[in-house]
Amino acid sequence: MTSSGTSGVQSQSPEEINPEQQIALEEYAEHDMPVHEAVLPVPDPGVEEHLPRLADVDKAAADRVERQVVTMYLLVPVMAVLFVLSYYLIPRTESIDFGPLHSSAKHVALGLTLGIGVLLIGLATQQWARQLMANNEVVEERHPAHSPADANEEALRQLNVGIDESGVPRRKMLIFSALGAVGILAAPALVLLTDLGPVAGPNYRRKTFETTLWKEGIRLVNDITYTPIKPEDLSIGQLLNGVPENLKELSGTEFNNAKAKCPIVVVRMNPADIKIPANRQDWQVSGILAYSKICTHVGCPISLWEQQTHHLLCPCHQSTFDLADSGRVLVGPAARALPQLPIKVNDEGYLVARSGFPVPVGPSFFERDSRHDLGQSQEYR
Question: CATH says 205-380 is which class?
Answer without folding.
Answer: mainly beta
